[in-house]
Amino acid sequence: MIDLGYSLSRRFPDPPQTDYRTAGVHALRHDLFCGDVYLADTTADRELSTAWGWVPVLDFAWALCDIVEQLDTDPRGSRSARPVHAELDFTESADLMRFERRFGWVDVEADWMPADEPPLTFNHAALRREARDFLHDLIADLTDMHDGLGDNPAIWDLQSRFPRV
């Protein structure tokens, strides 16, 4: 089972003058809502998590949804033996999360994992569902905390681009 989560940082708060209703895509993805994220395999009791405090959590959720779709470009889908690769980079660091899909399974590893630790492995369809649920749950939390965010057209577009599965 997959568990995705986040925590917002107290060290990197959003600027108090932010108008969330009109914030642009760049601000939403890179400047606001900093904290930490994790991706866990609850069955194996293993996780990948950041502990930096500055990861833009909305950008992480957005990028993860993009990556899951990018991994689904082979027309043979889960029957494909050809690996499909994608990377998620963290803007303020050289660290990467790497994704590889083959036969409907996605291996996830990160630069900060110990070299002898195997990647986390998830079913692609389950990862798609959980990534989209995480995105929608995160947006719901953020709109509860920040007046006007729910009226931002970029948020509307994002929700329509990645509906819940």
Report on this model:
With 165 residues, this protein is α+β, with helices and mostly antiparallel strands. The chain has one domain. Strands 1, 2, 3 and 4 form a four-stranded antiparallel beta sheet that branches. A hairpin with a 2-residue loop joins strand 6 and strand 7. 30% of the residues are buried.
Class by SSE composition? alpha+beta
Radius of gyration using CA atoms only: 16 Å
Biggest pleated sheet? 4 strands, antiparallel
- Order of helices and strands, N to C? EHEEEHEEEEHH
Give the helix proportion (percent range).
25-40%
Average predicted local confidence, pLDDT: 94
Report the portion of residues in β strands. 25-35%
How many structural domains? 1
Counting DSSP H or I runs of 4 or more residues, the number of helices is: 4
Poorly predicted segments: none
Distance between the termini: 16 Å
Shape, per Cα inertia axes:
globular
What is the number of beta strands? 8
What topology emerges from the helices and strands here?
Blueprint: E1 2-8, H1 25-31, E2 34-41, E3 46-49, E4 55-56, H2 57-70, E5 84-89, E6 96-102, E7 105-110, E8 120-123, H3 124-145, H4 153-161
Antiparallel strand pairs: 1-2, 2-3, 2-4, 5-6, 6-7, 7-8
Helix pairs in contact: 2-3
Task: Describe this protein with a few key phrases.
four-stranded antiparallel sheet, 27% strand, alpha+beta
Short structural summary:
The protein is an alpha+beta fold. It has one domain (2-161). It is 32% helix and 27% strand.
